[in-house]
Amino acid sequence: MAQHIASQNKKHDVRFFFFVVAGMVVITLMAQAGLINQYIQTVIMSVGINIIFASSLNIINGYMGEFSCGHAAFMAVGAYVSSVLSLILFTENKFTGAPLLPPATSVFLFPVAVIIGGIAAAFAGLIVAIPSFKTRDDYLAIITIAANYIIMTALNNLEATGASSGLMGMIAVVNAMRDVVPLPWMLIWILAFALVCVIAIKRLMGSTLGKGISAIRYDEISAEIMSVNTNRIKLLAFCFSSGLAGVAGGLFAHMISFINPKTFDIMKSTEGMVMVYLGGMGSLSGSVLSAMLFTFLLELLRPLQILKWVFIPLLLILLMQFRPEGLLGHRELSDVIPRLHFKPGFSKMRKKGEKDAG
After folding, report:
1. Of 120, 173, 200, 241, which sits 20 to 30 A from 347 (CA to CA)?
2. What is the number of alpha carbons within 13 Å of residue 125 lying toward its C-beta?
Protein backbone atom coordinates (compact mmCIF):
# COMPACT_ATOMS: atom_id res chain seq x y z
CA MET A 1 0.00 0.00 0.00
CA ALA A 2 2.84 2.41 0.83
CA GLN A 3 4.30 1.93 -2.64
CA HIS A 4 0.90 2.54 -4.21
CA ILE A 5 0.41 5.78 -2.22
CA ALA A 6 3.91 6.94 -3.22
CA SER A 7 3.12 6.19 -6.85
CA GLN A 8 -0.13 8.17 -6.65
CA ASN A 9 1.67 11.10 -5.03
CA LYS A 10 4.26 11.04 -7.79
CA LYS A 11 1.56 11.09 -10.46
CA HIS A 12 -0.11 13.98 -8.65
CA ASP A 13 3.17 15.93 -8.65
CA VAL A 14 3.70 15.24 -12.35
CA ARG A 15 0.18 16.46 -13.20
CA PHE A 16 0.69 19.56 -11.08
CA PHE A 17 4.04 20.21 -12.79
CA PHE A 18 2.51 20.05 -16.26
CA PHE A 19 -0.37 22.26 -15.10
CA VAL A 20 2.07 24.93 -13.90
CA VAL A 21 4.17 24.68 -17.07
CA ALA A 22 1.02 25.04 -19.17
CA GLY A 23 0.12 28.17 -17.20
CA MET A 24 3.61 29.59 -17.79
CA VAL A 25 3.30 28.93 -21.53
CA VAL A 26 -0.09 30.66 -21.63
CA ILE A 27 1.29 33.72 -19.80
CA THR A 28 4.25 33.88 -22.19
CA LEU A 29 2.03 33.61 -25.27
CA MET A 30 -0.29 36.31 -23.94
CA ALA A 31 2.68 38.59 -23.30
CA GLN A 32 4.05 37.90 -26.77
CA ALA A 33 0.66 38.65 -28.34
CA GLY A 34 0.40 41.94 -26.46
CA LEU A 35 -2.56 40.81 -24.34
CA ILE A 36 -0.47 41.48 -21.21
CA ASN A 37 1.09 44.93 -21.06
CA GLN A 38 4.57 45.70 -19.73
CA TYR A 39 3.29 46.76 -16.30
CA ILE A 40 1.47 43.46 -15.71
CA GLN A 41 4.51 41.56 -16.97
CA THR A 42 6.65 43.43 -14.43
CA VAL A 43 4.24 42.53 -11.62
CA ILE A 44 4.30 38.85 -12.68
CA MET A 45 8.10 38.89 -12.81
CA SER A 46 8.22 40.52 -9.36
CA VAL A 47 6.00 37.71 -8.05
CA GLY A 48 8.41 35.12 -9.47
CA ILE A 49 11.44 36.79 -7.91
CA ASN A 50 9.69 37.14 -4.56
CA ILE A 51 8.73 33.45 -4.66
CA ILE A 52 12.41 32.53 -4.99
CA PHE A 53 13.47 35.03 -2.32
CA ALA A 54 10.79 34.08 0.23
CA SER A 55 11.15 30.34 -0.35
CA SER A 56 14.92 30.52 0.10
CA LEU A 57 14.61 32.43 3.38
CA ASN A 58 11.97 29.95 4.55
CA ILE A 59 14.62 27.20 4.52
CA ILE A 60 16.45 28.98 7.35
CA ASN A 61 13.71 30.80 9.25
CA GLY A 62 10.97 28.26 8.65
CA TYR A 63 12.19 24.72 8.11
CA MET A 64 15.37 25.03 10.21
CA GLY A 65 13.86 27.29 12.87
CA GLU A 66 16.73 29.80 12.91
CA PHE A 67 16.36 33.58 12.66
CA SER A 68 18.16 35.22 9.72
CA CYS A 69 17.56 38.97 9.31
CA GLY A 70 20.02 39.89 6.55
CA HIS A 71 19.01 37.68 3.64
CA ALA A 72 19.07 40.57 1.15
CA ALA A 73 22.87 40.58 1.44
CA PHE A 74 23.04 37.30 -0.48
CA MET A 75 20.58 38.67 -3.01
CA ALA A 76 22.98 41.60 -3.52
CA VAL A 77 25.96 39.31 -4.09
CA GLY A 78 24.07 37.36 -6.74
CA ALA A 79 22.79 40.55 -8.38
CA TYR A 80 26.21 42.18 -8.69
CA VAL A 81 28.14 39.07 -9.70
CA SER A 82 25.67 37.98 -12.37
CA SER A 83 25.29 41.56 -13.68
CA VAL A 84 29.03 42.16 -14.01
CA LEU A 85 29.49 38.74 -15.61
CA SER A 86 26.72 39.24 -18.17
CA LEU A 87 27.99 42.73 -19.03
CA ILE A 88 31.52 41.41 -19.59
CA LEU A 89 30.36 38.45 -21.65
CA PHE A 90 27.65 39.95 -23.85
CA THR A 91 27.98 43.77 -24.04
CA GLU A 92 30.47 46.52 -24.67
CA ASN A 93 31.38 47.65 -21.18
CA LYS A 94 33.80 49.59 -19.01
CA PHE A 95 35.41 46.42 -17.64
CA THR A 96 36.78 44.78 -20.81
CA GLY A 97 35.58 47.05 -23.58
CA ALA A 98 34.31 44.70 -26.27
CA PRO A 99 32.16 41.72 -25.25
CA LEU A 100 34.03 38.46 -24.72
CA LEU A 101 31.30 36.46 -26.46
CA PRO A 102 28.87 37.21 -29.31
CA PRO A 103 25.78 38.91 -27.83
CA ALA A 104 23.58 36.28 -29.50
CA THR A 105 24.96 33.62 -27.13
CA SER A 106 23.19 35.36 -24.24
CA VAL A 107 20.03 33.41 -25.16
CA PHE A 108 21.73 30.22 -23.98
CA LEU A 109 24.32 31.51 -21.51
CA PHE A 110 22.27 34.07 -19.56
CA PRO A 111 20.98 31.44 -17.08
CA VAL A 112 24.60 30.34 -16.58
CA ALA A 113 25.52 33.89 -15.50
CA VAL A 114 22.57 33.90 -13.08
CA ILE A 115 23.58 30.52 -11.63
CA ILE A 116 27.18 31.69 -11.19
CA GLY A 117 25.81 34.66 -9.25
CA GLY A 118 23.90 32.17 -7.10
CA ILE A 119 27.08 30.18 -6.48
CA ALA A 120 28.88 33.36 -5.39
CA ALA A 121 26.01 34.08 -2.98
CA ALA A 122 26.28 30.51 -1.67
CA PHE A 123 29.95 31.14 -0.84
CA ALA A 124 28.90 34.30 1.01
CA GLY A 125 26.39 32.16 2.89
CA LEU A 126 29.20 29.76 3.78
CA ILE A 127 31.15 32.61 5.40
CA VAL A 128 28.09 33.52 7.47
CA ALA A 129 27.27 29.89 8.31
CA ILE A 130 30.65 29.02 9.84
CA PRO A 131 30.46 31.44 12.82
CA SER A 132 26.77 30.68 13.23
CA PHE A 133 27.28 27.01 14.17
CA LYS A 134 27.17 27.73 17.88
CA THR A 135 24.60 30.54 17.78
CA ARG A 136 20.82 30.58 17.63
CA ASP A 137 17.90 32.98 17.74
CA ASP A 138 18.96 36.56 18.57
CA TYR A 139 22.67 35.90 18.09
CA LEU A 140 22.18 34.53 14.59
CA ALA A 141 19.99 37.53 13.78
CA ILE A 142 22.83 39.85 14.82
CA ILE A 143 25.33 37.95 12.65
CA THR A 144 23.12 38.11 9.56
CA ILE A 145 22.30 41.80 10.08
CA ALA A 146 26.03 42.48 10.40
CA ALA A 147 26.64 40.54 7.17
CA ASN A 148 24.00 42.66 5.42
CA TYR A 149 25.70 45.90 6.51
CA ILE A 150 29.20 44.60 5.70
CA ILE A 151 28.23 43.68 2.15
CA MET A 152 26.32 46.95 1.64
CA THR A 153 29.32 48.97 2.88
CA ALA A 154 31.68 47.05 0.61
CA LEU A 155 29.49 47.66 -2.43
CA ASN A 156 29.10 51.34 -1.51
CA ASN A 157 32.88 51.72 -1.72
CA LEU A 158 33.56 49.50 -4.72
CA GLU A 159 34.27 51.93 -7.58
CA ALA A 160 34.42 49.17 -10.21
CA THR A 161 30.68 48.54 -9.83
CA GLY A 162 29.68 52.19 -9.49
CA ALA A 163 29.91 52.42 -5.69
CA SER A 164 26.85 54.19 -4.28
CA SER A 165 25.79 55.35 -7.76
CA GLY A 166 25.05 51.76 -8.73
CA LEU A 167 25.45 49.57 -11.79
CA MET A 168 23.42 49.77 -14.96
CA GLY A 169 23.45 48.51 -18.55
CA MET A 170 21.87 45.08 -18.06
CA ILE A 171 19.09 46.07 -20.44
CA ALA A 172 21.62 45.54 -23.26
CA VAL A 173 21.79 41.84 -22.33
CA VAL A 174 18.00 41.54 -22.41
CA ASN A 175 17.89 43.34 -25.78
CA ALA A 176 20.55 41.01 -27.14
CA MET A 177 18.33 38.03 -26.33
CA ARG A 178 15.34 39.72 -27.97
CA ASP A 179 17.37 40.44 -31.10
CA VAL A 180 17.95 36.71 -31.57
CA VAL A 181 14.36 35.62 -30.90
CA PRO A 182 11.73 38.32 -30.16
CA LEU A 183 10.30 36.84 -26.97
CA PRO A 184 9.75 38.21 -23.42
CA TRP A 185 12.94 36.50 -22.25
CA MET A 186 13.07 37.89 -18.72
CA LEU A 187 9.50 36.76 -18.08
CA ILE A 188 10.39 33.29 -19.38
CA TRP A 189 13.58 32.96 -17.34
CA ILE A 190 12.05 34.28 -14.11
CA LEU A 191 9.06 31.92 -14.31
CA ALA A 192 11.38 29.00 -15.17
CA PHE A 193 13.76 29.71 -12.27
CA ALA A 194 10.83 30.15 -9.86
CA LEU A 195 9.44 26.74 -10.84
CA VAL A 196 12.84 25.06 -10.52
CA CYS A 197 13.37 26.72 -7.13
CA VAL A 198 10.05 25.47 -5.75
CA ILE A 199 10.71 21.92 -7.05
CA ALA A 200 14.26 21.93 -5.63
CA ILE A 201 13.08 23.00 -2.16
CA LYS A 202 10.26 20.45 -2.23
CA ARG A 203 12.69 17.68 -3.14
CA LEU A 204 15.17 18.86 -0.52
CA MET A 205 12.66 18.88 2.31
CA GLY A 206 11.38 15.44 1.31
CA SER A 207 14.89 13.97 1.48
CA THR A 208 16.88 12.68 4.44
CA LEU A 209 18.79 15.95 4.55
CA GLY A 210 15.49 17.84 4.72
CA LYS A 211 14.35 15.72 7.66
CA GLY A 212 17.57 16.69 9.43
CA ILE A 213 16.83 20.39 8.78
CA SER A 214 13.38 19.98 10.32
CA ALA A 215 14.88 18.09 13.28
CA ILE A 216 17.04 21.12 14.12
CA ARG A 217 13.90 23.25 14.30
CA TYR A 218 12.24 20.99 16.85
CA ASP A 219 15.27 20.31 19.08
CA GLU A 220 18.90 20.69 17.99
CA ILE A 221 20.31 18.79 20.98
CA SER A 222 17.95 15.85 20.44
CA ALA A 223 18.85 15.87 16.74
CA GLU A 224 22.54 15.58 17.63
CA ILE A 225 21.79 12.70 19.99
CA MET A 226 20.00 10.96 17.13
CA SER A 227 23.24 11.22 15.08
CA VAL A 228 22.18 14.21 12.96
CA ASN A 229 25.26 16.21 11.97
CA THR A 230 23.76 19.59 12.78
CA ASN A 231 26.85 21.60 11.80
CA ARG A 232 26.95 20.02 8.34
CA ILE A 233 23.21 20.50 7.84
CA LYS A 234 23.36 24.14 8.92
CA LEU A 235 26.21 24.68 6.49
CA LEU A 236 24.37 23.10 3.57
CA ALA A 237 21.08 24.83 4.40
CA PHE A 238 22.72 28.26 4.62
CA CYS A 239 24.61 27.76 1.37
CA PHE A 240 21.57 26.45 -0.51
CA SER A 241 19.33 29.20 0.83
CA SER A 242 21.89 31.91 0.07
CA GLY A 243 22.45 30.53 -3.41
CA LEU A 244 18.75 30.72 -4.24
CA ALA A 245 18.64 34.29 -2.92
CA GLY A 246 21.57 35.09 -5.21
CA VAL A 247 19.64 33.68 -8.16
CA ALA A 248 16.71 35.93 -7.24
CA GLY A 249 19.11 38.88 -7.09
CA GLY A 250 20.54 38.14 -10.53
CA LEU A 251 17.09 37.95 -12.09
CA PHE A 252 16.01 41.10 -10.26
CA ALA A 253 19.03 43.05 -11.53
CA HIS A 254 18.33 42.15 -15.15
CA MET A 255 14.61 42.81 -14.78
CA ILE A 256 15.04 46.43 -13.64
CA SER A 257 18.42 46.93 -15.43
CA PHE A 258 19.79 49.04 -12.59
CA ILE A 259 20.96 48.22 -9.08
CA ASN A 260 22.70 50.05 -6.27
CA PRO A 261 23.63 48.97 -2.73
CA LYS A 262 20.59 50.67 -1.22
CA THR A 263 18.36 48.31 -3.23
CA PHE A 264 19.44 45.47 -0.94
CA ASP A 265 19.45 47.18 2.45
CA ILE A 266 17.83 45.93 5.65
CA MET A 267 14.39 46.92 4.33
CA LYS A 268 14.73 44.34 1.55
CA SER A 269 15.56 41.73 4.17
CA THR A 270 12.48 42.84 6.10
CA GLU A 271 10.36 42.24 3.00
CA GLY A 272 11.64 38.66 2.91
CA MET A 273 10.76 38.11 6.56
CA VAL A 274 7.28 39.55 6.07
CA MET A 275 6.65 37.11 3.22
CA VAL A 276 7.96 34.12 5.20
CA TYR A 277 5.92 34.87 8.32
CA LEU A 278 2.86 35.88 6.34
CA GLY A 279 2.75 32.56 4.50
CA GLY A 280 3.85 30.38 7.39
CA MET A 281 7.22 29.18 8.61
CA GLY A 282 8.01 25.80 7.13
CA SER A 283 5.32 26.01 4.45
CA LEU A 284 6.47 26.11 0.83
CA SER A 285 2.91 26.73 -0.35
CA GLY A 286 2.71 29.56 2.17
CA SER A 287 5.84 31.21 0.73
CA VAL A 288 4.40 31.06 -2.78
CA LEU A 289 1.03 32.47 -1.69
CA SER A 290 2.55 35.18 0.48
CA ALA A 291 4.92 36.24 -2.33
CA MET A 292 1.87 36.77 -4.55
CA LEU A 293 -0.12 38.60 -1.87
CA PHE A 294 2.80 40.74 -0.79
CA THR A 295 3.70 41.79 -4.35
CA PHE A 296 0.12 42.78 -5.08
CA LEU A 297 -0.03 44.62 -1.75
CA LEU A 298 3.08 46.62 -2.63
CA GLU A 299 1.49 47.65 -5.91
CA LEU A 300 -1.67 48.75 -4.12
CA LEU A 301 0.40 50.78 -1.66
CA ARG A 302 2.57 52.37 -4.36
CA PRO A 303 0.58 55.67 -4.26
CA LEU A 304 1.58 56.03 -0.60
CA GLN A 305 5.25 56.25 -1.67
CA ILE A 306 7.49 56.43 1.42
CA LEU A 307 4.65 55.60 3.81
CA LYS A 308 4.51 52.05 2.50
CA TRP A 309 7.88 51.43 4.21
CA VAL A 310 6.17 52.26 7.48
CA PHE A 311 3.35 49.85 6.71
CA ILE A 312 5.58 46.86 5.86
CA PRO A 313 7.38 46.63 9.26
CA LEU A 314 4.02 47.31 10.92
CA LEU A 315 2.57 44.33 9.07
CA LEU A 316 5.39 42.16 10.45
CA ILE A 317 4.65 43.35 14.00
CA LEU A 318 0.94 42.62 13.61
CA LEU A 319 1.71 39.15 12.26
CA MET A 320 3.90 38.34 15.25
CA GLN A 321 1.20 39.53 17.63
CA PHE A 322 -1.97 38.04 16.20
CA ARG A 323 -0.97 35.30 13.74
CA PRO A 324 2.59 34.19 14.59
CA GLU A 325 2.17 30.92 12.65
CA GLY A 326 1.23 32.76 9.44
CA LEU A 327 -1.53 31.89 6.99
CA LEU A 328 -0.68 28.18 6.71
CA GLY A 329 1.68 27.61 9.63
CA HIS A 330 3.76 24.47 9.01
CA ARG A 331 1.09 23.06 6.69
CA GLU A 332 1.01 22.94 2.92
CA LEU A 333 -1.93 24.01 0.80
CA SER A 334 -2.79 20.36 0.15
CA ASP A 335 -3.28 19.88 3.91
CA VAL A 336 -5.73 22.77 4.05
CA ILE A 337 -7.58 21.85 0.84
CA PRO A 338 -7.60 18.03 0.71
CA ARG A 339 -8.86 17.93 -2.87
CA LEU A 340 -5.52 19.31 -4.02
CA HIS A 341 -3.94 16.15 -2.70
CA PHE A 342 -6.61 13.70 -3.87
CA LYS A 343 -5.37 10.12 -4.20
CA PRO A 344 -7.92 8.07 -6.15
CA GLY A 345 -6.02 4.84 -5.85
CA PHE A 346 -5.70 5.10 -2.10
CA SER A 347 -9.35 6.12 -1.72
CA LYS A 348 -10.50 3.04 -3.61
CA MET A 349 -8.29 0.78 -1.50
CA ARG A 350 -9.57 2.38 1.69
CA LYS A 351 -13.19 1.97 0.65
CA LYS A 352 -12.55 -1.64 -0.32
CA GLY A 353 -10.96 -2.28 3.10
CA GLU A 354 -13.93 -0.69 4.87
CA LYS A 355 -16.35 -2.84 2.82
CA ASP A 356 -14.43 -6.03 3.59
CA ALA A 357 -14.31 -5.12 7.28
CA GLY A 358 -18.08 -4.55 7.27
Report:
1. 200
2. 31
Q: Is 327 helix (H, G, I), strand (E, B) or coil?
A: coil
Asked if 70 contacts 53 with a C-beta cutoff of 8 angstroms, the reply is no
Looking at the domain 2-353, which fold is it? Answer: ABC transporter involved in vitamin B12 uptake, BtuC (1.10.3470)
Residues in the chain, total: 358
Label residue 280 left, alpha or beta by phi (over 0 means left) and psi (-120 to 50 means alpha).
Answer: left
The Cα–Cα gap between 238 and 228 comes to 16
The domain segmentation of the chain, as residue ranges, is 2-353
Give SS3 for 167: strand
Entry pTM: 0.88
Predicted confidence (pLDDT) per residue in 150-206, tens digit: 999 999 998 888 888 889 989 999 999 999 989 999 999 999 999 999 999 999 988
pLDDT tens for 328-358 read: 877 777 777 765 554 444 344 444 444 444 4
- Kind and range of the H or E element at 168? strand 167-168
